[in-house]
């Protein structure tokens, strides 16, 4: 069985979990090809990401003329399937016309149709028998249309929150209906897919976690003394809740003179956060450290006593898994898949989303926790994430799903 992965933009520094999953599958002797619509190489720094970029076939780098000729050639050889795929593309475009930018409109779906025809052709040329898309957005649209055009069967992984913010705009129900199976990275995510699927399709929706590589977290650093010193990691965007965290820090810092927070990440809210930090007089308390690679993230976790995640919307953040693997307790909002991993009072603290006072109280609770108890929570966090999110074990589960599709196809062909 030869499988292709399809991602809209790949690789990206913020999506190393896809690379880890691909490499874990390859360690199981599964042959994988990488498709992406576009590259993000101008923003790549890590050598592993750059190497992955070189392994990836970026469809739009063909240029419009060559892509159009490739697509047209496939469509002319498969007129019946082309008409069916065209109707499907237009139907999905109508559903998404008023939805999320980047997914809606008939014209956009006609572009997806052309991309899908080229992908179907390349799958035939490469002997690819199954296509797996990451994210239930544009990439899965292309996979679905490629299948409708006579390409291989497909499956997809949803992460959230984007897919679940506008499920109708992303035609999730239609994508589920045509897919061999779908994957969610948490039980919460599976529940959101079930909301869009016909009841008869629920058995084809599976939970396969994003994973971490345990070897990268072989010897956790001991918790540093003093503080407390917290670290927050994520894109400086609205859904991550960082302005609320600044308000919580201002409240907690009044009682905790040693309190420090390092924020790793960049994004559109950086200036607003700088203004909020200055307005609260927190320049000596909160440090905006900018983007960091995997090595920088591990160093920041080692220097902190806990990760804090004030998000308003999430899937199940890999950074939480990495913090727990590093032996760090977590303060997080009780949203999406987070309560499945972090349990109140055992691996950390869960607080209501949007409540700066609750965040501040959790910070004070952490500061009042004896060092040995805090270290014990870090050990519990590490044990739990290694038991649930080992990438090799999760890749085995995904490989079994691929194998099931191959067996089903053999039975149908027989």
Layout: helices, strands, pairs:
Blueprint: E1 2-9, H1 16-27, E2 31-38, H2 47-55, E3 56-58, H3 64-77, H4 79-96, H5 106-126, E4 130-134, H6 138-148, E5 153-158, H7 162-165, H8 172-178, E6 181-184, H9 187-196, E7 205-207, E8 229-233, H10 242-253, E9 260-264, H11 270-279, E10 286-290, H12 294-302, E11 306-309, H13 318-325, E12 330-333, H14 338-341, E13 348-351, H15 356-368, H16 371-388, H17 391-413
Parallel strand pairs: 1-2, 1-4, 2-3, 4-5, 5-6, 6-7, 8-9, 8-11, 9-10, 11-12, 12-13
Keywords:
414 residues; alpha/beta; Rossmann fold; 2 domains; 15% strand; elongated; disordered C terminus; glycosyltransferase activity; Glycosyltransferase_grp1; Glycosyltransferase
């Amino acid at each position: 069985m030869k499988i292709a992965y399809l991602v809209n933009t790949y690789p990206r520094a913020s999506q190393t979990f896809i690379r880890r999953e691909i490499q874990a599958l390859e360690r199981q002797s599964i042959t994988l090809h990488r498709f992406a619509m576009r590259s993000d190489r101008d923003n790549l720094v890590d050598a592993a990401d750059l190497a992955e970029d070189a392994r990836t076939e970026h469809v739009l780098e063909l240029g419009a003329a060559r892509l159009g000729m490739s697509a047209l050639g496939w469509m002319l050889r498969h007129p019946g399937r082309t008409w069916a795929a065209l109707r499907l593309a237009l139907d999905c475009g109508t559903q998404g016309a008023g939805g999320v930018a980047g997914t809606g409109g008939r014209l956009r779906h006609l572009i997806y149709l052309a991309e899908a025809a080229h992908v179907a052709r390349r799958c035939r040329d490469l002997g690819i028998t199954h296509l797996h898309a990451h994210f239930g957005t544009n990439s899965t649209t292309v996979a679905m249309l490629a299948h409708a055009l006579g390409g291989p069967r497909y499956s997809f992984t949803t992460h959230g929150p984007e897919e679940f913010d506008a499920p109708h705009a992303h035609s999730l129900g239609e994508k589920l209906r045509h897919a061999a199976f779908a994957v969610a990275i948490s039980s919460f995510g599976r529940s959101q897919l079930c909301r869009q699927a016909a009841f008869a399709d629920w058995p084809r929706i599976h939970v396969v976690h994003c994973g971490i590589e345990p070897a990268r977290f072989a010897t956790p650093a001991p918790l540093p003394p003093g503080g407390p010193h917290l670290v927050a990691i994520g894109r400086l965007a609205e859904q991550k809740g960082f302005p609320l965290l600044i308000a919580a820090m201002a409240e907690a810092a009044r009682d905790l003179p040693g309190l420090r927070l390092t924020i790793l990440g960049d994004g559109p809210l950086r200036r607003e956060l700088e203004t909020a930090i200055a307005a609260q007089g927190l320049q000596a308390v909160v440090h905006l450290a900018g983007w960091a690679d995997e090595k920088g993230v591990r160093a920041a976790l080692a220097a902190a006593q806990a990760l804090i995640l004030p998000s308003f919307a999430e899937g199940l953040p890999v950074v939480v898994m990495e913090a727990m693997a590093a032996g760090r307790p977590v303060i997080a909002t009780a949203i999406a898949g987070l309560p499945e991993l972090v349990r109140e009072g055992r691996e950390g603290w869960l607080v209501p989303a949007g409540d700066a006072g609750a965040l501040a109280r959790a910070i004070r609770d952490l500061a009042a926790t004896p060092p040995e108890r805090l270290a014990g929570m870090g050990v519990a966090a590490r044990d739990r994430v290694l038991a649930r999110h080992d990438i090799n074990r999760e890749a085995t589960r995904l490989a079994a799903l691929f194998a099931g599709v191959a067996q089903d196809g053999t039975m149908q062909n027989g």
